[in-house]
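Posted in: Protein Modeling Q&A

I'm a second-year student putting together a small comparison for a lab meeting, and my supervisor asked me to include a predicted structure for Acetamidase/formamidase. I've never done this before, so apologies if this is the wrong subforum. The sequence is pasted below exactly as I got it from our records. If anyone can share the structure token output, I'd also love a short note on what stands out.
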Amino acid sequence: MSGVAAERGTGSTDGGRIAAPTSLPILQPGVGPIPGDHYLRATPDTVLWGRLPCATDASVLEIASGESVTFDTVSHEGILDDQGKDPRAYFASHGVAPEAVLDDAIDIAASVARDPFADGPHVVVGPVHVRGARPGDLLKITVETLVPRVPYGVISNRHGKGALVGELPRGEHNVSVFSAVAERDGALVGTLPVVEGAEPVVAYPLAPFLGTMGVAVAGAERPHSVPPGDHGGNIDINLLVEGTTLFLPVQVEGALAYVGDPHFAQGDGEVALTALEASLRATLRFEVVPADAARAAFGEVTGPLVRTPEYLVPTGMDPDLDAAMRACVRSSLSLIHGRWGMDEHLAYAYLSAATDFDISQVVDIVSGVHARIREADFAAVPAVEPEPLASESSSGGGVA
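Accepted answer (user: helix_wrangler)
Welcome! Here is the predicted structure, written out as tokens:
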């Protein structure tokens, strides 16, 4: 990779010192490996900016249950109005060469409509119609690969939002911090300086995931892209790395799935407002779990449910963080009873003794809490696996 500052820390306006680049390639549209059964580019015809799909939106791709899609996702950082809505100029101010700025980000900034006062910041790709998905089913989304498209990202504290409303940012309306990716001891890390403009000596590990994965809501009104909900959306659960699965309750025929808000790294809480926001190429597999099979495996699932190799992760959401915590406890009790038949008072005791409840984020209007229930703790208890619909050959195919 040439012509880009791949290890450099800056604030919202000041310049910084360029250091050694990484070897990460720039994954412009159509460039590099595309492992999915289908490929969905981020174009003005395949994205929404600041809103999420609803039942009346037409799908941009139709697939069979069991098929995978490679998505080119685009970060909102660098394309927003308060950053000039010109990603070439914005990233040039941080030492990034024009050829290292994504062409699809430039096109979206120039031609996709967004009301900066009424809409959210996120670019979402889709929706994708999954054949056979019906309300009451679960859509199983398996994260197969997440590949950085660029070797840099941005962390922002803007519009007085974040965990410390009224305190930060100090004296500025917006603070956007450029964070370049470097290679340290064979691993990719994000970098930051200790003092503005100095050498980026602070290094933190990357763990890419998609902050937004969701299904369309019923009705004709597109939801705002910021608050998460039963439909998924901007859930910002950093456990959703490669090899994990998200289950979402289907609300409309075909599910109408979408993805966006790519992250390179995020701490639980996401306290400054954003994490390390940066574009990813994501390959996801979509499977429909029929309603009866879903109930047999997990009981009644009314919101996002994550599964990692180690944990089942129910969620709770509410504008009030305490209420979100209580909702997550109730979801956890329901899951344990539905999957393993454990009495409520015993499950409550188990959660108190053995389960961590983590704050997903506190900055997205609706706060999120997620629990990590170790499946190994229940290895001696019979359980049913969520059997998806049998795969079929697709007649859709191709690239969008």
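A couple of things worth pointing out for your meeting: Residues 293-378 form a domain with the Endonuclease I-creI fold (CATH 3.10.28.20). Residues 1-20 have pLDDT under 50 and may be disordered.
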